[in-house]
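Hey team,

Sharing the Pentacotripeptide-repeat region of PRORP domain-containing protein run so nobody has to redo it. Sequence (405 residues) first:
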Amino acid sequence: MGGAATVHGGRGGASSVGKKEEAVQEVVGTWGELRKYGRLDYAIEVMEWMQMRKMNVPHAIYLDLIAKNKGITAAENYFDDLSPSEQNHSTHGALLSCYCRELMSEKALTLFEKMDEMKFLSNSLPFNNLMSLHMRLGQPEKLPAIVQEMKQKGVSPCTFTYNMWMQSHGCLNDFEGVERVLDEMKMDEEQIERGRETKKKRRQGDYREAYHFLITLYAGTSNLGEVNRVWSSLKSNFQTTTNVSYLTMLHTLAKLKDVEGLLKCFKEWESSCHSYDMRLANVAIRACLEHDLYEEAALIFDDALTRTKGLFFNAREMEIEWQPEPKTLSAFFAYFEDEKDVDGAERLCKILKHINRLDSNAYDLLLKTYIAAGKLAPEMRQRLEEDGIEINPELENLLERVCPK
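Structure output:
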């Protein structure tokens, strides 16, 4: 009876056990979410609860948890206490990952050799861990040999493998090597069976990232010609060009100060996009302002307001808000002041208020626009009060000219 009462007696006990069982499922099924939200201590508590009740514990996950919370020595001790059957490819792989994360190269290489002897190198993960280790240790020249060993063992490179391999060539300024890896990745993509559409779509999404990396790499050497060549290749290899690809290219052209090419690229995207992404407009606006193209920036700005159907810039759909840099705002207000465009300045202030960025500096710039236009605003003092803006001496001087008492 007593034992039964522990489990079933009382709503609090049953609720507690229920929550623990739910937590177990969360740990096993949504480990990525636990790591994302930093709930590692709670995950360890659940694992210990599972152990006390003689339940099957996912040892590889638990080992990784221990290493992150209690240190590598505790993780090694946990691994050593496992039974021979539990010291399988998963737990060996988890320990290898821990060694690589802690940059313990000697132990990592020794364990990798042991895994090879035990025929545990059946997928790309152990190889990827070693590649990450060498990259973090500043040894990119060691990655091609690891890839070659993978192939000799009949292990197919995954997307992560290809990306790390390209990065290693990039670190060595071996652009031809990067292109060779990209070509091989393309051939691998073409070998995927047509009937396996889900896998194909997933691989294609990752495949785009290879082009993004190559574009960024050539931008780092200020090679605009190669940037444009890779961009053309990207567009020709896919039926549609995503917002992310356009964003990568716009950032690159902005970095290379090719404002003409940037505006051409932006207009190409704008004419064909299915969902308007304010991040792309931000890049174009900022580039225009940096090159004193204020009228062009204002046109993009006004069009963005229309395309996003309101002042919030579709932030609910995009789950991001527009966060303009101070220099961008100052440049816009300077343009409105020069043009005596009070309506434009007011539109910008409404947007800033909507995203909680309307401050005394914005009002300072707004008042200067009113003064430049020779206009009064009798309600301005009331607006400042309602928005919680403290009136400093500089603002008071401006108010006297726009909203005299």
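Residues 345 and 366 are 6 Å apart (CA to CA).

Ping me if you want the raw files.
A.
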